[in-house]
Design a protein that fits this description.
Layout: E1 2-6, H1 11-22, E2 26-30, H2 34-42, E3 46-48, H3 55-62, E4 67-70, H4 88-108, E5 112-118, E6 129-130, H5 143-157, E7 161-167, E8 169-171, H6 176-186, E9 199-200, E10 202-204, H7 205-215, E11 221-225, E12 231-232, H8 233-244, H9 254-259, H10 261-264, E13 272-273, H11 276-282, H12 291-304
Parallel strand pairs: 1-2, 1-4, 2-3, 4-5, 5-7, 6-13, 7-11, 8-10
Antiparallel strand pairs: 9-12
Helix pairs in contact: 1-7, 3-4, 4-5, 8-12
The chain binds NADP nicotinamide-adenine-dinucleotide phosphate.
NADP nicotinamide-adenine-dinucleotide phosphate binds at residues 7-13, 30, 32, 36, 52, 71-75, 89, 93, 116, 118, 167, 169-170, 175, 177.
């Protein structure tokens, strides 16, 4: 397929471009600078410079493609995440650019349109497994996630196969969120707030990228992209501590869970999210079935770096 990727230069995007090229697809990726364009060339893609908020530019750039994949976001660093203004660009991407890309997929007569989302949309499920039909509970501060998700239903209604991927918490040695998590854990504290028994939906980003490739052939619908075996916070902290060679990593105090406000509250819930639907539909399977395997590999890679 000819695949157009927005967010192609990000942590997941770079891997998705490489995985798509390896699978035999012809990939066009959005690059915002000459350096990023060179990166996409090295990955085997064709860079294009296009403003995702300019409808005309995007419709022209997407014409002739069989699939559109939107992985663009602007998630602020851990240090800035509590400041509402640092989310402005991310909100604009989910509210405006997701609609522009959906229009472009429809206008191009694409076979398939893939939109990123987050596994944190689900209400607290305690110990229960959560599939794609589990109750959602999106706070008003994250309404842009609803807007982006709605685009997928709109493209599906128009006849394009719409795929919504709800990713778990990303883990990769080149992700700033992972690097921040490791830096704080080396001082003995877990960044992820929430009760000790709360499950954390996670995915290693190479696996998230292969899920994007697999999703091109999935029936339209919503799919969770998470590992096989989500851990409770206490166990996640133990696994991370062991990978770092520490005796322990402490869970954050309860007041920190409240400090992030309503935007961060979904990150504190227990979400034992299931990947069964994507596996059954596509045969995709994660190389890292659990953070028990992913954390040691990431720490080794960071050590080598
Ligand atoms: N991190 C997580 O734990 C997590 C969890 C669930 C879902 N996700 C989702 O997974 C996706 C990818 O995350 P990631 O870690 O790959 O993010 P990332 O590394 O920050 O990459 C973001 C991508 O979006 C592009 N972008 C940012 N602002 C843009 C703008 N104004 N116009 C055009 N492109 C813009 C970036 O381009 P530049 O390279 O030019 O900056 C980059 O290609 C995101 O959609 C995210 O919401 C992440």
């Amino acid at each position: 397929m000819k695949v157009f990727v927005a967010g192609a230069t990000g942590v997941i995007g770079r891997r998705a471009v490489r995985a798509l090229v390896t699978a035999g697809h012809d990939v066009t990726g959005v690059a915002r600078t000459p350096d990023k364009a060179a990166l996409l060339f090295r990955l085997g893609g064709t860079p294009t410079q296009v403003d995702l908020f300019d409808r005309g530019e995007v419709l022209d750039a997407v014409a002739g493609h069989d699939a559109v994949v939107n992985l663009a976001t602007h998630i602020p660093s851990t240090a800035k995440a509590a400041l509402p203004r640092s989310w402005k660009e991310n909100t604009r991407i989910r509210e405006e650019a997701s609609g522009v890309l959906a229009d472009a997929a429809i206008s191009a007569g694409a076979r398939c349109h893939i939109q990123e989302s987050i596994a944190f949309v689900y209400a607290d499920g305690g110990d229960a497994w959560l599939d794609e039909d589990a109750r959602r509970d999106v706070p008003p501060a994250l309404a842009s996630v609803d807007t982006a998700e709605a685009q997928v239903h709109r493209v599906t209604a128009s006849g394009v196969s719409g795929i919504l991927l709800r990713f778990g918490f990303h883990h990769a040695a080149d992700s700033s969120l992972t690097v921040d998590t490791v830096r704080v854990a080396r001082r003995g504290l877990l960044v992820a707030p929430g009760p000790a028994a709360a499950y954390l939906p996670s995915v290693q980003v190479d696996d998230a990228a292969t899920a994007v490739v697999a999703a091109l052939d999935a029936p339209s619908g919503v799919y969770n992209v998470v590992d096989d075996d989500p851990l409770q916070r206490w166990e996640y902290a133990e696994v991370l501590a062991a990978a770092l060679g520490r005796a322990s990593v402490r869970l954050p105090p309860a007041f920190l869970a409240k400090a992030g406000g309503r935007r961060a509250e979904p990150l504190t819930r227990s979400q034992r999210v299931s990947n069964r639907k994507l596996k059954d539909a596509t045969g995709w399977t994660p190389t890292y079935p659990c953070m028990r395997q992913a954390w040691p590999a990431i720490i080794r890679e960071l050590g080598a770096a």
